[in-house]
Amino acid sequence: MKIFYICKSQQKNMGAKITLKKIAKELGVSTSTVSKALSDSHEISVETREKVKAFAKMYNYKPNSLALRLRNQRSMVIGVIIPEIVHHFFSTVISGIEHGANERGYNVMVCFSDESYQKEVLNIEMLAGGSVDGFLVSIAKETQELSDFRHFEDLKEEVPLVLFDRVHPKINCDKVVVDDFGGGYKATEYLIKTGCKKLAIITTPDFVSVGLERKKGFLKAINDYNIAVPSEYIIQVNEKNDITAQIQKVINLPDRPDGIFAVNEIYAATAMKLAQDKGIKIPEEMSFIGFTDGYISQFSNPSLSTLAQHGHEMGEKAIELLINRIESKDSDFPFQTKVIDVDLKIRNSTKKTF
Amino acid sequence: MKIFYICKSQQKNMGAKITLKKIAKELGVSTSTVSKALSDSHEISVETREKVKAFAKMYNYKPNSLALRLRNQRSMVIGVIIPEIVHHFFSTVISGIEHGANERGYNVMVCFSDESYQKEVLNIEMLAGGSVDGFLVSIAKETQELSDFRHFEDLKEEVPLVLFDRVHPKINCDKVVVDDFGGGYKATEYLIKTGCKKLAIITTPDFVSVGLERKKGFLKAINDYNIAVPSEYIIQVNEKNDITAQIQKVINLPDRPDGIFAVNEIYAATAMKLAQDKGIKIPEEMSFIGFTDGYISQFSNPSLSTLAQHGHEMGEKAIELLINRIESKDSDFPFQTKVIDVDLKIRNSTKKTF
DNA sequence: TATTAACACGAAATCGTTTTAGTGTTACAC
DNA sequence: GTGTAACACTAAAACGATTTCGTGTTAATA
Q1: In the Cβ-directed half-sphere of B15, how many Cα atoms lie within 13 Å?
Q2: Which residues face B66 on adjacent strands?
């Protein structure tokens, strides 16, 4: 018997993958017997069970997951669509998603919309045909600009959807967002309390949900502390054009600000470099606070004060909501929106004393 | 007829997904007819074809991709395993892979080994059971340290494998690597030519393939130009301990180097900050060159000279090799190793004049 | 000796497709 | 009137698993 196995096993590289059917044939039993034996069913005699298991192990049998999924009507795969991957924050979110998914036995399939509406729709269509049990999406900028969310509506009828970071009130589903408003407020308040009088903001156009919220937080603080902000202190960067040129304007202003809140790392670091190039002393003459605690903030010089976003936590929260939704029998419990706190991380681009 | 459709279509949210079988039942034809009608087979009358297609569209029918894959014995999915995602270089590679894959109709499934041997094996097992048509892997550090590659050997019998960036000569398969040796040489040569006399290197332990190659390049240049490098100028960072403390040693040396080549951005930026803290003038008193042209290099101050790695290109090359391997009938054409060039990008952490 | 329970296994349905090999009807030519 | 070609469609197998429902054999019990 042993020899027989070894003999056969030498052929394993030749043919295609080993299946239940092939094992059954070789052993002269039915596929049902093999299946049951492998799952240690008491329906099958111990003798047969051992024989089958030994054989399966020898051939390195692994059940075909496609067949399994088809039968179980479950793919155990989560589709994730993010705007871009070369981005510290999204990387951390993905890492959280992957971690949480694996913990509950799911796999993750990542696609990128490249901020394009077209690619977002395409990706969803590609993954929707039974490939995934649920979607985790952060909306592309173009989609936000177009404000066309039909693809999400269609999707929701088939499979659960959780939106994270870039969300929209029109879409009714579970959501996980960063406390963008609170972050904007905290940053601005800190600048004010450390003595900045002339506050500027470098943000995105209003259709970018997170940019808008951060700006609102800024504006609220400005208002609460009775500070006037001239319109030229509010820069809304259009990424289709030269970013540096747009940011430079506020730095070059004759009556320039002494505190700048930027809604992301890149804007903050770019602005700070521009200021340094003009010989402006940081933080004494100009303070900076960014958003996202990535490598740019850590390694810029001076290191950037910023709002840490806890992307990993956001990913874990999002996948938790999604899997709960997938696995719940009565799927009509109300949708919820989780807000992830942000931490103000003070480094050297801001003053320390109040 | 029209009314009938509308009537039914209102129920579509209720039941599960629409399938060929259901369409067939509703229309009173066989599933084969529906299948053929949808693929515009001339076996089916124009009348029936139109009817089926209209119905399918109304119900927003999408073929179940699991069933398709099972039948076609192809998943059209590529499994990618990288050591970590929160990493600029790997992000760019992923983006290249995704781009190339989509172009040829494949999807990408990304998993992370977190530099752990265990997780690498687990991920491969998870994806190997028919889920993916091929693997793209960058080896985890722990796996390199353990030098245990049986999981890859087993894998290769079932499905093609392409290794990228972190490779190993023991594994016989297609590979794509960066010209790490050449990069190390170029960097060192540049430092020498701009007047540095005392050259140090901050690198990884030798089991990290890319670190070793970069060090070899450094050593070759040192040798070619007849420069002596004392052993305390060669720092091999053990990431299990405090990185900063290890790097600090070479900066604090009484007879300190005037040119430092670091094998990644983080080491370079960390070293540079440490030097700045000591009041050392950069690049006049100490020059720095890193590896990987990420955000850290761009936004550090002074901005870091570095070797740009072209991760996107590497990803595209890797996926191309893999898909060619998957789609070729005679799969025994010889394995190849592609080397991606690196570009020395001079910024402000090095001297300009020769 | 007849009945029944336990045991060990197999047949067939199922998941959603595609594809090959029929099948029945009509129409036309001889 | 018969043979056959075209037409329009269906049945069934296949992909690889699981699971429900049988079924045949043996052994124990009445």
Answers
A1: 11
A2: none
| Displacement of CA B18 from its chain's centroid (Å) | 37
Kindly indicate whether the domain formed by B74-177+311-340 is annotated with CATH number 3.40.50.2300.
Answer: yes
Footprint of strand C on the protein (CB under 7 A): A 28-33, 36, 42-45, 47-48, 67, 70-71, 73, 130; B 16-17, 19-21, 31-32, 35-36, 38-39, 43, 61-64, 67-68, 70-71
Q: Order across the sheet with B234-236: list the strands.
A: B234-236, B199-203, B259-262, B287-291, B305-308, B343-345
Question: What residue ranges do the domains of chain A occupy?
Answer: 2-63, 75-177+311-340, 180-309
Asked if CATH classification 3.40.50.2300 holds for the domain at A180-309, the reply, yes or no, is yes
CATH of domain B2-63: 1.10.260
Tell me the pLDDT tens digit for each residue of B47-99.
999 999 999 999 999 999 999 999 999 989 999 999 998 899 999 999 999 99
**Contact status, residue A133 vs residue A77, Cβ threshold 8 Å:** yes
Q: Please count the CA atoms within 13 angstroms of the CA of A95 that sit on its side-chain side.
A: 19
* Cα atoms in the 13 Å half-sphere on the side-chain side of B141: 13
* Superfamily name and number for A75-177+311-340: Response regulator (3.40.50.2300)
